[in-house]
Every structure is written in C-alpha cells, then in structure tokens.
Amino acid sequence: MDLPPETITTTNLSLHPFRRRDVDPLLAAVRESLPELSQWLPWAHQGYTRDDAIRFVRDSVQAWRENRAYDFAVTARDGATHLGNVSIWHVSRGFHVGEIGYWVRTDQTGKGLATEVTARMLQIGFERLGMHRIVLRIAVGNRASERVAEKLDFVKEGVLREELKVRGQWLDHTVWSMLEHEYRRRAAEYAVFAGN
C-alpha cells in the first residue's frame, strides 16, 4: 500500500507533504534549531543553506512520487509556522517494517508535538501502509526523543554502536520498536495522542 500526498491533521497540528513554498520556512526553522539539531543529525550542519533546504524539498517530493518515504512539514493548524518535520518510510516492504523520524523546532520543544505527530505516523504506518513493525532510532543521549518513545510505549531493543557520524564523532543509537499487535491493543490511546 502507498500513501497519497495529502494533508493530515492532529489535535493541534497540520502535516502536509513538502512543496516548494516550504523552503524558506524550513530553512528558518532549521537555522533557529541548529545548536540542538546538529548534536544528533548529520544533515544539520552549521553551514546549512537555502540550497540544502531546496535539495531536501526536491528529494522529498521525489521520494513521495516513488513511494520510498513520506516526509511531512509540521505546522500549527493555521499553517503559519514551520514547527518541524516527521517522516515515515519502509525499511523492508517484504517484511512490512517501517521507521519514523522526527524533529521539532527548538522554540517549540517540550510541548508534546513530537509525541503527537509520532502517534499519527503510527496510525498511518499500521492502518494505511500495512506495516507489521515500526522502529525509531535515537542517538544515545537524546533524552527528548527517548521520552517520545517512552510515552508511546515503544520497546527499547538495544544499541547500534557507532551507527552515524555527526560533527566528526561516531554516535551510538538506541533502537525502539512497536509491533502491530502492540499498537492494536492501545490504538484508542494513540488516537487521543494523535487527536482523532
């Protein structure tokens, strides 16, 4: 199953596939958040430019067309401010395994936004994309992202040693997972998180 490029809402947020007009809002959000993002994400380098944002949006549109990955720009319901990104993609279509990634603009962290959009991605992954297992990979030490996994009752499986190189340093990542039957047991709770 594939996902049509459509806007999705939660209680507080609007999630839409990236388009050209998202370049400047994305750039502003990334630049404001670079001190925090650059600790954990290899793409969030200090020299992040408008060209980087253009490339991301172009790649995102192409990935959506090819059904490789589904990236969403996260905004308030009025669409006024870029609050972050959330993505879901297949790690293995044959085995129905997916992964979710997210980040939230620094001045908006601590408000439960990452939990809200991740809960919504769980619904999409299990109910619309037919996934059996969804994982999160979180850099060791990124407690804000670990709290999202904990709130949504992901199971911590272990550590991937020196998985990504960020700012010249190899970072270990914890792997968290949820299985379809675990999601089904708590689907009503996730619906509350996701606002539907």
What would your notes on this structure say?
The protein is of the alpha+beta class and 196 residues long. The chain is built from 6 helices and 8 strands; from the N terminus they run ββααβββαβαββαα. The protein has helices at residues 23-37, 50-65, 113-128, 143-151, 180-185, 187-194; strands at residues 8-9, 13-17, 69-76, 82-92, 97-104, 133-139, 155-166, 169-179. Strands 1-2-3-4-5-6-8-7 form an 8-stranded mixed beta sheet, sandwiched between helices. Strand 1 (8-9) and strand 2 form a beta hairpin. The longest helix has 16 residues, at 50-65. The chain is globular and about 45 Å long.
The percent range for strand residues is 25-35%
Q: Looking across the biggest beta sheet, what order are the strands in?
A: 1-2-3-4-5-6-8-7
- Number of distinct helices: 6
Helical content stands at: 25-40%
Mean model confidence by pLDDT: 93
General shape = globular
* Major sheet size, sense and barrel closure: 8 strands, mixed
Number of strands: 8
Spans of at least 5 consecutive residues with low confidence: none
For this structure, the quaternary state is single chain
Query: Structural class of the secondary elements?
Result: alpha+beta
